[in-house]
Sequence to fold (939 residues):
Amino acid sequence: MTEALECQLLVIGGGSTGAGVAWDAALRGFQVILADRGDLATGTTGRFHGLLHSGGRYVVRDPGGARECARENVILRRVASAAIEDTGGLFVTTPLDDLEYADRFFASCPAAEVPVEEISPAEALRREPRLTPAVRRAFVVQDGSIDSWKLVWSCAQGAKQLGARILPYHPVTAIVREGDRVIGARLHDLRSGGDVEVRAQCVINAAGAWSGQVARMAGCEVAVRPGKGVMVAINHRLADCVVNRCHMTGDGDIVVPSHSVSVIGTTDTPVEDPDDIEPTAEEVAKMMTAGDVLLPGFSRSRALRVWTGARPLLPKTATVGDDREVSRSHTVIRHAQRDDLGGLISIAGGKLTTYRLMAEDTVDAACAELGVERTCTTAETPLPGSTGRNYYRLPDHQADFEKGRADNPMVCECELVSRSDLLAAARRNPQVQIDDLRRVLRIGMGPCQGGFCAFRTAAILHGQKEYGRSQANAGLRAFVQERWKGQRPVLWGQQLRQAQLDAWIFQGVLDIEHMPT
Amino acid sequence: MNTDALVIGAGTAGLIAATRLAQGGLRVLVVATGEGCLPLASGTVDVLGYAPGPVKSPLGALPGLLDAHPEHPYRLTGAAGLEQSVAWFLQVAAPLGYEGELTRNRWVPTVLGGLRPTALVPRGMAAADLGGGGEVLIAGIRGFRDFHPALVAENLCQATAAPAAAIQARAIELDWPGSAGDLVPFRLARRLEDAGIRRSLATQLRPKIGSAAAVGMPAVLGRETAADIHADLERRLGVPVFEIPGLPPSLPGLRLFDCLRRALRDAGGRLLLGSSAIAATHHQDTLDSVTITQASRPVEVSAGFFVLATGGFVTGGIVREPDGRLREPVFGLPVHGLAPGQQPFGDEYLSEHPLDRVGLSTDANGRPLGAAGAPHAVNLYAAGAVLAGALPWREKSGEGLSLATGWHAAEAILGCRREDVA
Fold:
């Protein structure tokens, strides 16, 4: 059965860019439909290290990119504060780094509008005691930690409140053309099994690392080159602020505090297929060793899991013809001008910190495509939940939890998730899977990686009427399998012990292998 | 410090070996870093449940298992040793009323509502065998996060693993009287010593029993006085009550730990917890002493015999380094079971992982082999999950292996002593 929908803008891709476009366009009064092949923010957006750039990482090699980050950083702190932890950041010169680079770094910040303050190595060590005592220079910047899931959901929620439709688990199966115009797309609803035909005045390809695939469905090219980056989560916060090496950039030179863990990143390896980005043991070893340079003893700490993301890199040579290079870091392609194919706009490149600007540029192009003039207001309009400077703080969660503690069993000890949190999330989304709850509530993201909470979660969800016995059994198995993928490369020492304890629970006690389906 | 036998590890294998040795007249000291694995265990004695299909009779399936896996630790005891160790265990664990046969597995419910094959069960699970089908009432406690009766009951009704006849299961959730607070297994077990609590639960339960032949409850029915609590509930309800073991900490496992510790003490053995073995001294092919930590100080313990029962990865008996190297931390024994370059893990979580089989190789007497392929020391034995060759959770063989190999190590040592005396 095919359902027919109509809208002005169909956005393909529910990462930060697509959700940002949906929010921006909805604010400008467009009727919007947003579709993603999976849940929101499960591509590159949900698979990065969580850094809200100060711009410091680009001041020397790309001052324009740095300026963009610095400006967006200020804006996001105003409009998306609930998704941000105001950790601040440090750039430190280790004995392996060139002292001359530190001078260039410090000198380049003002021109790039990146606020910076030098502090003494002693002061840096006072603030971050685990920092290498051999630190030679230290600079404070406005880095932050951003929860990309929260960010994307608030964009989607805001758009929805303004009438947008959000369609997760709806992969595009065809881009529908009428002559030299794109007039919509065909989607497949993975949950109902039906098809959806969407007619749109303009289709926006915001599929990031997958945008080449989407463009090909329309018969044109977006020469996106996916770049694989590997990240490793450590079981607690080794530093409370973002710690960067002050050098020209390299592998494993940044450690970001993210909720209750630290994340180290990253690498950049070109890949053909953004879905084929398995991390290797060598990459993990490289991250662990690199961590020791900034935080001695890093390689002996307990790695929880490893994951990779695919950056949507767009080589400069790809932007030919009438492309308007709107930014140093991202490109909006109006296929009407480049390929004589109306009704299709692609956005590629960019980074999470500049997602809002990317969305603004994209919706500007859509306005031009539709021949209307509507002003962007995302820089002034707070996202739902953000009231300006109401930053996320790690201890607040603990305090909230303690308030409702009595008569509200704790489902996940690692991340302090209660039964009522779980039920509230299930009420908001009756079709919710345990893995979706991981992104919403951080279920299964702590040291036990789901060993204790996965069973409880499945059983509590089963008490909800939309979630039957089979779903509980299958959901539990699927979740355990999903968690397994990211653990395999870091199973040694204490985390292997944990994984074996989990195996004891799942196989020995619960015997999930022989559950009825 | 001096003793006849030093046992390292206080899990099932260590406590079994130590108790058997102490009963055989040796002065025995057990040192262990922690309380071993029993707080994690279900309290059942799983001997062989899958090989790889469901096993009806552990004894019957044993020859096939050993043909397929000649390195399996059950080769040390064979069927005869296994039977003797089980007979001995049933006596030692008599206070907990263990029962069962090696010729017939029982099918007991999990907290997910699946059925799990096991050979021996404590009295509290005597009525848990649902292999023959039947009608049961599953009673949970509202607010207890580790037990969800509706899911247990619905899954039991679909159980296809073994039962000859269908299971009819219903669910009820009981209100815990008084302030709930955090309902965790220890707290529930302690509070159930209060007859008032039991009366309240029984009052809620009784009208719901109907034609159910038994009532299944979470395995939190007390620790020291579990037998009394269980008997009292059965008396109040008029039908058998069985416990369903769940997530750690496991009361049935802890009761077995208490029981074995008491048997060891009664036989004159000593148990030193919070004490790790850190070094060893040799004299030619004989192990002279092991250095342990006691109150954070090193103490040298000389002994005639040593048993290494430190377990697998879970309890730190085997360690995997970041570069993939495997080591046995007390004696530095070579860890076998993974060929050079072999991938340690399968792709699917539930696929068989080669790493799960790794451990120590031994001679026929259970003495671990050193780098040269000969026993590391003539008076060092290994038992339990530290041994190579088994997949305890997949096979459902963990406690059986620990029991049989722990008992076997003790028998080998007692045999040596008899030879020396002769």
